[in-house]
Every structure is written in structure tokens, then in C-alpha cells.
Design a protein that fits this description.
Blueprint (H helix, E strand, L loop, with lengths): L9 H4 L5 E4 L11 H9 L3 E4 L4 H9 L4 E3 L12 E3 L4 E4 L4 E4 L5 H9 L2 H7 L7
Parallel strand pairs: 1-2, 2-3
Antiparallel strand pairs: 4-5, 5-6
Helix pairs in contact: 4-5
Length: 130
């Protein structure tokens, strides 16, 4: 039932590995982690949005789902999107779109690479925040 009220055709066209592109305040008022868990189960690779609800954004990082804020104008359904977290870019080559996004801090990128905060802390139990 994911997204059926706001985009009834979404689930029929979504494939594991796809990137969700959303407008302003994606995930606002969604403080529970279940929303992110559902997207993981669906196979969402990342979310690109003009802006996020802050708690939702934290939940994406904590659960290993990349979420990037950038200008989404010109990006359409079905576009192939390439994200480079280290370089801080979102690219749609077919439309000649290249957007710079704030580069996530190295610790956040490492948390994402490990699959979320719990997996990261299990692997690095002595890690201390800088």
C-alpha cells in the first residue's frame, strides 16, 4: 500500500533499485522508522528531494537509506539517476542535469555504507563521535 493515496500507479512501475524523487518536505510528520523500513523492503536505493522532514531524514541515515536534498526541477518519472555520495552529485545524463548537493560527512557516508547506524556500531563498537 506504499504511496497508493498520493501516487496510485507508483507501486506498479517501481522496481527494486529505483530512486524516489520527491518535492518539498518529503517524510514530514513521519517520525516512526516504519516508513523507512517499508522503503527498504521495497528496494528503494535512495531518495532525492527538495527537502525532508528532519526526523525522517535522520531515520533514513540511521537505517542506511541515502537521502539527498537538491533541486529536482527537470527530473521526470523514469529518468535514470546517478548519485555520487563522495562527490556530492546527482546526475541525469540523458537530460544533461548535474546537481551539486552538500557532501555528507565521512562518518555519515560510512554509516550508510554499513547499512545503518546499528550495523555500523556493531562493526565499530569503540567508535566515538568527533
Amino acid at each position: 500500500h506504499a504511496f497508493e493515496k498520493v501516487a496510485p500507479a507508483f507501486i506498479g512501475s517501481f522496481k527494486a533499485g529505483d530512486i524516489i524523487v520527491a518535492g518539498k518536505n518529503f517524510g514530514i510528520n513521519s517520525s516512526r522508522e516504519q516508513a523507512v523500513h517499508v522503503m527498504h523492503l521495497m528496494g528503494v536505493a535512495a531518495i532525492v528531494s527538495h527537502s525532508f522532514g528532519r526526523q525522517f531524514f535522520r531515520n533514513t541515515i540511521n537505517n542506511g537509506l541515502p537521502a539527498l536534498e537538491c533541486d529536482i526541477s527537470g527530473i521526470a518519472d523514469g529518468d535514470e539517476i546517478e548519485i555520487d555520495l563522495a562527490a556530492g552529485t546527482v546526475q541525469v545524463a540523458a537530460r544533461k542535469i548535474l546537481r551539486k548537493v552538500p557532501v555528507l560527512p565521512p562518518a555519515v557516508r560510512q554509516i550508510l555504507a554499513e547499512g545503518g547506524l546499528i550495523k555500523f556500531l556493531q562493526k565499530y563498537p569503540d567508535w566515538k563521535a568527533a
